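Thread: "does anyone have the structure for this chain?"

Original post by V.I.:
We have the sequence but no experimental structure in hand. Need at least a predicted one for the grant figures.
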Amino acid sequence: MKLLKILTLTAALSALSVAAASAATKRDLPVRNEGASVSVNVHTGGCTTPKDFVVDNVAKGSPAVVTIKRIKWDACEAFVPGGLWIKYSKSELGLADGDSVNFIEDLN
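Reply from O.Q.:
Generated one for you, tokens below.
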């Protein structure tokens, strides 16, 4: 009987950890809308550059939602609590100067 309870509890905890891992595949990022451009703040260990990210998707709307994806891992270990601000022109994202924009990082 105790073995059945332990197995049931183990299965339930495994299901919860899988659900939590799949829910954490995207993260909202801090953004500064600046007229014709927009800046997004990303985590860095000190070696991140703008070229380490690609724009994965632009969903037009109010606000527009831009999904970026890191293509190069930052293995540096510097303490950079303010992150790195990356600037994009709204025209390169296919957006108008006055559009409000939010950013999401795809963590997959």
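V.I.: this helps a lot. The chain has one domain: 26-106.
O.Q.: and DSSP finds one helix and seven strands in the chain.
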